[in-house]
UniProtKB/TrEMBL annotation, chain A:
It holds the Pfam family BPD_transp_1. This is ABC transporter permease. It is a multi-pass membrane protein. Belongs to the binding-protein-dependent transport system permease family. Its main location: membrane. The chain crosses the membrane at residues 60-79, 91-113, 214-233. Keywords: Cell membrane, Membrane, Transmembrane, Transmembrane helix, Transport. InterPro entries: MetI-like, MetI-like_sf. It is found in: Cell membrane.
Automatic annotation (TrEMBL), chain B:
Signal peptide: none annotated. The keyword Ion transport does not apply. Pfam families: ABC_tran. Coiled coil: none annotated. It comes from the Bacteria. Keywords: ATP-binding, Nucleotide-binding, Transport. It comes from Bradyrhizobium archetypum. One of its GO terms (molecular function) is ATP hydrolysis activity. InterPro entries: AAA+_ATPase, ABC_transporter-like_ATP-bd, ABC_transporter-like_CS, ABC_transporter_ATP-bind, P-loop_NTPase. This is ABC transporter ATP-binding protein. Involved in beta-(1-->2)glucan export. Transmembrane domains (TMD) form a pore in the inner membrane and the ATP-binding domain (NBD) is responsible for energy generation. Belongs to the ABC transporter superfamily. CDD domains: ABC_NrtD_SsuB_transporters.
């Protein structure tokens, strides 16, 4: 019971803290939680902003899907083949520390401010954690499992698809979960830089015009989107890798 | 017939040193023979088995099966590993059915055969359990059933009963002997139990401490079918055991 309502309590606590903080600060650019919540229906009721949200979600879905489809096989191959790993590792090491949104201006020069640039940035943001976790997952697959498969007559490709992929799936999905959050972040930041459409566009336009209750309403909406997406993904993950979940919750005692 | 011809195995350790694991092993195993490999821990028993399985390529020498050089794993040689070999994302039934399905046997038929095998190893009722839901001994029995399911001509067993309690161990030894007497598969069986080796085998190959060499090959001339309770009273059986135990002691190689 407590476990079920704990997230709700956490959200509620956050809102209360926000309300108190903004009442105490009495700052124009920091509306109270209630004011922000009251502004939500206006944002969601507006047809224009719904179109913007739709565009954001579409880019995010395409970027995320493309990244997953390409990164999982690449990561798995890297995990099982030293040659592939030593070819791609340096490349990834170069890209890894660069904030993907920082590439946005350059990409915009090449591809314009439209969907393509933003989707590409989301793709890049999602790719790295998925590649990394697929790589680690594939590397950790027990040799005896692969040997057993080989003895049953599975070819190298079959072993990759039918043994390495399922065995590494829990790890891969961990990467996808990180990727999902990053997709949301890069989605917003890309729209902040290429201000042309999307949820980030609404948010930063409102900021420019000093409509702070709209700004904070957007923050709540984006946050809620993150929570819902993550919860949905967690459901899918739990279904896919039920076989690997730990049996018992070990109660930790701090006494 | 399996011929092992002057096989030596050198491993490169992580510290870049050469480690001689097997030295000049020559051994011939007749079709239908039950041969055990016995020796102190680390003498290369598993390595020798892996070479016959085609999982490890020997540094020097060669292994042949039916006159053809062994270049890789194949469904004619079925391994039963010590641990970590089951597919954790497959149920018990799924694991056992994997080999037959891979060989193109129809689902219904593979399932019927697999259920019979699962019953034989004493796991009726556990068909839908996942490996993480089984005890160590149960996993080992699934591993045996999974390998038997695709009917390899040669069984390569690496201490398959090592983790079992005495009762289950005896039962499975009897089951294995029954299967062997029915099908006359060739069995290469690694164990560190002298009693187990003598009870099961036609031939016991004693190895020396690392680097592994063949120290002696003992023909076990006891009547079959063997009954454990009868053998325990048989002076010939006792003599074999004492003789082999002495060899362990001689060189201070007792475990
Ligand atoms: N991949 C490897 N790299 C380096 N050394 C190895 C490797 N595999 C095995 N060895 C070494 O080879 C020797 C033989 O190992 P092996 O596993 O065959 O022994 P074993 O007789 O099966 O022992 P046990 O009874 O404990 O299972 C050991 O000394 C081990 O250190
Ligand atoms: Mg071993």
């Amino acid at each position: 019971m407590i476990r079920r309502i704990a997230p709700l309590l956490a959200c509620l606590g956050l809102l209360v803290a926000w309300q108190l903080a903004s009442l105490a600060l009495k700052n124009d650019s920091f509306p109270t939680a209630l004011e922000a919540i009251r502004a939500i229906p206006a944002v969601l009721g507006d047809k224009d902003s719904l179109v913007n949200f739709g565009a954001s979600l579409r880019r995010m879905a395409i970027g995320f899907a493309a990244a997953v489809v390409i990164s999982i096989p690449l990561g798995l191959l890297m995990g099982r083949s030293r040659a592939v790993a030593s070819f791609f590792n340096p490349l990834l090491m170069v890209i890894y520390p660069v904030p993907k949104a920082a590439l946005m201006p350059i990409i915009m020069l090449w591809l314009g401010v439209g969907d393509l640039s933003k989707t590409l940035v989301i793709f890049l943001g999602v790719s790295l954690p998925v590649i990394y976790h697929s790589f680690e997952g594939a590397k950790a697959v027990e040799e005896k499992m692969l040997w057993s498969g080989a003895a049953m007559g599975l070819s190298a490709v079959q072993r990759l698809v039918r043994i390495v992929l399922p065995a590494a799936l829990p790890e891969i999905l961990t990467g996808c979960r990180t990727g999902l959050v990053l997709a949301l972040i890069t989605m917003i930041t890309s729209e902040m830089i290429a201000r042309q459409s999307g949820a980030g566009n609404i948010l930063f336009n409102a900021l420019d015009m000093g409509q702070y209750d709209t700004v904070f309403a957007m923050i709540i909406i984006v946050g809620a989107m993150g929570i819902v997406l993550d919860a949905l993904f967690e459901r899918l993950r739990a279904r896919l890798v039920r076989w690997s979940e730990p049996q018992f919750d070990i109660p930790l005692s701090f006494s | 017939m399996i011929e092992i011809n002057q096989v030596s195995q050198v491993f490169q350790t992580s510290a870049r040193q050469d480690h001689l694991a097997l030295s000049d092993i020559s051994l011939t195993i007749q079709d239908g023979a039950f041969v055990s490999i016995l020796g102190p821990s680390g003498c290369g028993k598993s390595t020798l088995l892996y070479i016959v399985g085609g999982f490890v390529r020997p540094t020097r020498g060669a292994a042949k099966m039916k006159g053809r050089a062994i270049t890789g794993p194949g469904p004619d040689r079925g391994p039963v590993f010590q641990e970590f070999a089951l597919f954790p994302w497959k149920s018990v039934l799924g694991n056992v059915m994997y080999g037959p399905r891979q060989q193109g046997i129809k689902h219904a038929e593979a399932e019927a055969q697999s259920r019979a095998l699962i019953e034989m190893v004493g796991l009726k009722g556990f068909e839908d359990f996942y490996p993480k839901e089984l005890s160590g001994g149960m996993k080992q029995r699934v591993a045996l059933a999974r390998t038997l399911a695709y009917h390899p001509e040669v069984l390569l067993m690496d201490e398959p009963f090592g983790a079992l309690d005495a009762h289950t161990r005896t039962r499975l030894q009897n089951d294995l002997l029954n299967i062997w007497e029915r099908d006359r598969k060739t069995v290469l069986f690694v164990t560190h139990s002298v009693e187990e080796a003598v009870f099961l085998s036609d031939k016991v190959v004693m190895m020396t401490r690392s680097p592994g060499r063949i120290r002696e090959i003992i023909e076990i001339d006891l009547p079959r079918p063997r009954r454990r309770t009868e053998l325990l009273l048989d002076p010939r059986y006792q003599k074999y055991i004492v003789e082999i135990e002495r060899m362990f002691d001689d060189s201070g190689e007792g475990e």
